[in-house]
Write a structure and sequence with these properties.
The chain is mainly alpha-helical. It has a single domain, classed as Methane Monooxygenase Hydroxylase, Chain G, domain 1 (Up-down Bundle). It has a two-stranded parallel sheet with strand order 1-4. Strands 2-3 form a two-stranded antiparallel ribbon. α3 packs across α5, α15 packs across α16 and α16 packs antiparallel against α18. The longest helix has 34 residues. Bound molecules: protoporphyrin IX containing FE (HEM).
Length: 472
């Protein structure tokens, strides 16, 4: 493409508009020299919702009803394309018709959403769900090689994502942070009055509980964010009273991490591994992931290889990243720490966590950068202040234990299921067999983002353990 073509291309124009909007609407605006507050990063401490918005997302205005209606319809009729059998003509026909309607939709301007971040979030969520419904409702014979995402979805999703500064694909934000409403809209936002998993792919309670489990972790995480805030607000960190306070803060952080571990363990009772693996997880796959690995092409969009298109993962949870950053966990193996990384650690995808940040809303990523650039790193303090070391190491150990439990969960829900020969109830047997064959040919279990799962999870666990400060 010649430069002049680029100037005239809708994408160039749109990028210009976006960059103006970015600076105006969704970038952190803090006066030079002033300390940012958590509200500057869209982190809600007052309402105790943390990275969740203060209020549930409203429906989009009438001009966007075709998107909203398509999402409602998708949840009523679409099933996973790989579960559709030749003889299931009704599901095939429903899916074909739904996808045809999507291709026929006009490209709707997002101008009316520009100034309202709740509506922009809603648009991202609705469009990203539609894209995943579109791709994964196609029978495998239609997805060989690549899938074209129609411009009716591709163009507005790219635009909205650019304004929110996040990936143009379904993310943790869409499925957890923004996927709730109030049971009684007249009552305040409290965990008891929140209903999670408003939008679902499979419609199963297991899927709802999966999102609910993740949301509970986010809600518990609010206390951790408050504790970080208290730490950064201390006038100094060297006097006796401050050291005692830091000890207490770290001890409270450890206690919250242990509660997160309990929530994670409780998911075993609420989420059936085979339903999760066969009926829920396939919907999350992004471009070039999953057994048949079609790559996505955004009609009128840039080359897909320049976009982040992995799909949602709790690896995108800002709470977990904040915790890791606060404790200075070195996933990229850049620091000299003991014990040295094993060969398996070095073979893992050490850039995974950093990449996952690109799926977060831009302001949350800004918060993490702010946390990372603090002039008061707690690990350094713990190294130089023996009285803090024990509490710091205990917090590291709690996160290491959490990752150990997580490995067991991921093994149960993903690794064992991919090897299992049990056919889950409610799934067409032959479709399942086809998929199992494909997975066996693939030979190993991969994560949503196409990562070699156990290498990644163990490497992150070991990186966590390595943060502990040794006696010598
Ligand atoms: C049934 C429950 C769960 C399953 C089956 C599961 C599975 C996975 C898988 C397969 C990955 C690899 C990357 C990917 O494919 O996305 C992953 C990563 C991750 N998950 Fe989970 N997960 C579960 C619950 C949770 C919860 C509740 C949390 C929050 C505490 C969490 C936090 C993470 C984090 C932080 C990563 C990034 C890798 C790491 O830091 O070790 N997961 N999970």
């Amino acid at each position: 493409m010649y430069p002049i073509d680029l100037l005239q291309s809708p994408f160039y124009l749109f990028n210009n508009v976006v960059s103006v909007l970015n600076s105006a609407l969704l970038s952190r605006k803090v006066a030079p020299g002033a300390q940012p507050t958590l509200a500057d990063f869209d982190v809600n401490i007052q309402t105790n919702t943390g990275f969740l918005p203060e209020r549930p997302l409203p429906r989009l205005p009438e001009a966007y009803s075709s998107w909203e209606n398509a999402l409602t319809r998708a949840q009523e009729v679409l099933i996973l394309g790989e579960n559709i059998m030749e003889e299931d003509t009704q599901s095939r026909a429903d899916g074909e018709l739904w996808r045809l309607r999507i291709r026929e939709l006009p490209v709707i301007s997002i101008n009316d959403l520009n100034t309202d971040k709740q509506l922009l979030r809603r648009a991202h969520k609705v469009l990203a769900f539609l894209v995943h419904f579109y791709v994964h409702s196609m029978p495998p014979d239609q997805t060989a090689g690549s899938v074209i995402i129609p411009r009716s979805l591709a163009t507005p999703l790219l635009q909205v994502s650019a304004i929110l500064r996040m990936a143009p694909v379904l993310t943790f934000a869409d499925t957890v942070l923004w996927n709730w409403d109030l049971i009684n809209p007249e009552l305040p936002v409290t965990p008891e009055n929140m209903r999670f998993g408003v939008e679902l792919f499979s419609g199963t309670e297991d899927e709802r509980n999966f999102w609910f489990g993740n949301a509970r972790v986010e809600m518990l995480g609010v206390e951790i964010l408050q504790l970080f805030n208290e730490y950064h607000s201390l006038p100094n960190v060297s006097d006796f009273a401050s050291v005692c306070k830091i000890n207490r803060l770290l001890t409270r952080i450890s206690a919250v991490v242990r509660r997160i571990e309990e929530v994670m363990a409780s998911m075993r009772e609420l989420v059936d591994p085979s339903i999760f693996f066969w009926q829920v997880r396939p919907w999350f796959n992004g471009s070039a992931s999953g057994p048949s690995k079609p790559s996505w092409v955004f009609e009128d969009g840039p080359d897909s290889s320049t976009l982040d298109l992995s799909g949602p993962s709790a690896g995108q949870s800002s709470v977990m990243h904040a915790l890791d950053i606060f404790l200075d966990i070195d996933f990229k193996l850049q620091q000299r720490r003991c014990p040295a990384p094993s060969d398996a650690n070095k073979r893992a995808d050490v850039g995974f966590m950093e990449r996952m940040r690109r799926y977060m809303p831009g302001l949350h990523r800004d918060y993490l950068s702010y946390l990372a650039n603090t002039s008061r790193p707690v690990r350094e303090l713990a190294k130089s202040t023996p009285a803090v070391k024990e509490a710091y190491n205990a917090a590291v150990s709690a996160v290491r234990k959490l990752r150990d439990s997580h490995i067991r969960i991921a093994c149960l829900y993903v690794v064992s299921m991919s090897r299992s020969t049990a056919i889950p109830a409610g799934c067409p047997v032959f479709a399942m067999m086809r998929r199992m064959e494909r997975q066996q040919n693939q030979g190993r279990s991969t994560g949503t983002g196409g990562n070699e799962l156990s290498l990644l999870l163990k490497s992150n666990r070991d990186a966590t353990a390595r943060a502990a400060i040794k006696s010598s």
